[in-house]
Amino acid sequence: MNVVLAATAGFLFAAGTYLVLQRKLSRIIIGIGLMGHGANILLVSSGRRGTPPLIGKGDPSDFADPLPQALTLTAIVISFGVTALLLAFAYRSWLLTADDEVGDDLEDRAIAFEGRDDQEISDEQARPHLDADDMAEPDHMLDYDTEDSMSTPDADTDVAE
User: Fold this and answer.
1) 47: Cβ contacts below 8 Å, ≥ 6 apart
2) Count of the separate structural domains present in the chain
3) For every one of its 161 residues, what pLDDT tens digit does the chain have, with 9 covering 90 and above?
4) Which domain holds residue 83?
């Protein structure tokens, strides 16, 4: 039975990943839901079977592990909240564009059309040359004074000017 549950969880993860990579918001939302269901099946299958963990109702070594069940309930609540948020985003996008396709970021598109690569620089070029004394204590720590950092308006200062 564990092999069937593992294969089902794997299939749900694979189908969810495929749908998340699509350009339509409705498919992305369904894909995230499928991945959430795959995670739930994986969590439930990780626990061991047994009797309900009620004190006085059997041997404690025969109790089922309640942690995967608690994690599954938490995952269900979180996936419900994420799905509701994504549905609200999709509805707002539908109102604005009358389409549920995710558009390209304009800056990413401009970089892709220019076709230029970023210039690689070394660490020494990225930061200025520092002496060993400068590396010992950062500048923002040298001038730190606790009394000056907690300044309060004086009683004789007119704040309403």
Assistant:
1) 64, 65, 67, 68, 69
2) 1
3) 789 999 999 999 999 999 999 989 999 999 999 999 999 999 888 887 888 777 777 787 888 888 888 999 999 999 999 999 999 999 998 998 888 888 777 877 777 777 666 677 777 776 766 555 555 555 555 554 555 545 455 555 555 54
4) 2-49+65-114
How many Å apart are CA 124 and CA 130, to the nearest integer? 10
Whether the model pTM is above 0.85: no
- Residues in contact with 13: Cβ distance below 8 Å, sequence separation at least 6, in sequence order: 34, 35, 38
70 in a structural domain: yes
Q: Can you read off the two tokens belonging to residue 52?
A: 């309900």
87: CATH: 1.10.287.3510
